[in-house]
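2024-03-11 09:14:02 INFO worker-7 job=invfold-0412 stage=load source=structure_tokens
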């Protein structure tokens, strides 16, 4: 790893190993470069957009923009978004819900999801007892099913990934 140096008033490092974090989308990275370019211009440091992209890449620990672009662009797209309406099965019962939060857990596509159900679901199968749940948090695979399973082997949660509500 090379020593840090200052470019356009920003401390950067080159030839670093990229951090093990989830990357923003390419659109978000480009927007970050535009904001950086604007902020530097306000201070009298005028740079080209390409230079701003290179600085963003270095700040995230990548050698250059092309390396960052490849890393961010090679991720499988997440078909889910915060605020999106979804449907599926929770403990075998159909539901409709709105996504409250999403968090990428790893490069393999696993997500931590939080749902607000339109109508509460009874999570107990006994006739003499009920327990209703309106909010669900789960870890899901790229196919929309949970890692955790019921005693009969069915996923706790299964999102219908083909359609949205």
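2024-03-11 09:14:09 INFO worker-7 stage=emit residues=165
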């Amino acid at each position: 790893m090379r020593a840090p140096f200052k470019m356009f008033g920003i401390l950067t490092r080159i030839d670093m190993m990229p951090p093990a974090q989830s990357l923003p989308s390419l659109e978000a990275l480009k927007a970050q470069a535009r904001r950086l370019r604007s902020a530097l211009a306000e201070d009298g440091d005028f740079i080209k957009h390409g230079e701003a992209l290179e600085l963003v890449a270095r700040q995230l620990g990548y050698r250059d923009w092309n390396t960052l672009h490849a890393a961010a662009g090679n991720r499988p797209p997440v078909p889910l978004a915060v605020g999106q309406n979804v449907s599926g099965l929770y403990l075998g019962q159909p539901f409709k819900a709105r996504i409250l939060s999403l968090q990428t857990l790893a490069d393999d596509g696993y997500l931590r999801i939080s749902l607000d159900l339109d109508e509460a679901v009874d999570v107990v199968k006994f006739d003499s007892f009920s327990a209703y749940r309106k909010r669900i948090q789960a870890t899901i695979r790229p196919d929309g099913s949970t890692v955790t399973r019921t005693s009969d082997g069915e996923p706790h949660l299964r999102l219908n990934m083909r359609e949205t509500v």
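2024-03-11 09:14:09 INFO worker-7 stage=report msg="Confidence is low (pLDDT under 50) at residues 12-20."
2024-03-11 09:14:10 INFO worker-7 job finished
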